[in-house]
């Protein structure tokens, strides 16, 4: 079993839909990261959180430390949100990654 | 402020050769981490450097090594290349690298192909 599990693996949505991507982890962490990777490889860090909830524009990330679970929500999804979303956990300068969720938003 | 830069962006090498990749962090960032991304294994942590010292290392063979210079620029080296080393190699920088508030910024990556 992987230390970081993401679901779903693939997700197709219509423009405007509310999207949720889930992440569960089984190791101790100092922080959880949500990353976005577009075709071509570039990675952007969306959120880094160790408790509670963070919001940036249409993106919301939550984490439940007791349940070792995090969710990434996208409100009013848009085709430009199409990308791979990767959950990662860090501890002691070591980062472990989920397999990623490939999101396609259709106009 | 300039972002993280990596050179070269693309590289083709032959099995048995060695390769050196370079990463220049954001100015003021002292932590540099390296990652390997392959279709089969996804993203995996290679190592992290801070103030010219390797602080942590992932589960990779000794053929993978790195170093960091006094200006925080970092290089990674892979010796005796194997076909399985074909991957996108990403580096990321952060100020200190050991705080939940310390965000990582990724470079564009170096795509290495081993033939």
Fold and architecture overview:
The complex is a heterodimer of chains A (107) and B (115). Chain A has 107 residues and is an all-beta fold. Chain A is 0% helix and 62% strand. Chain A has strands spanning 4-7, 10-14, 19-25, 31-37, 43-49, 52-56, 59-64, 69-74, 83-91, 94-97, 101-106. In chain A, strands 2, 4, 5, 9, 10 and 11 form a six-stranded mixed β-sheet that branches. The mean pLDDT of chain A is 93. Chain B contains no helices and eleven strands. Chain B has strands at residues 5-7, 10-13, 19-24, 31-38, 42-50, 53-57, 64-68, 74-78, 87-94, 105-106, 110-114. At the A-B interface, strand 4, strand 5 and strand 10 of A face strand 4, strand 5, strand 9 and strand 10 of B.
Characterize the largest beta sheet of chain A: strand count, sense, and whether it forms a barrel: 6 strands, mixed
Quick one: how many beta strands of chain B?
11
Whole-number average pLDDT of chain A? 93
Shape estimate of chain A: globular
- Rg for CA atoms of chain A: 13 Å
Overall SS class of chain A: mainly beta
List strands and helices in order, with pairings.
The complex is a heterodimer of chains A (107) and B (115).
Chain A: E1 4-7, E2 10-14, E3 19-25, E4 31-37, E5 43-49, E6 52-56, E7 59-64, E8 69-74, E9 83-91, E10 94-97, E11 101-106
Chain B: E1 5-7, E2 10-13, E3 19-24, E4 31-38, E5 42-50, E6 53-57, E7 64-68, E8 74-78, E9 87-94, E10 105-106, E11 110-114
Parallel strand pairs in B: 2-11
Antiparallel strand pairs in B: 1-3, 3-8, 4-5, 4-9, 5-6, 7-8, 9-10, 9-11
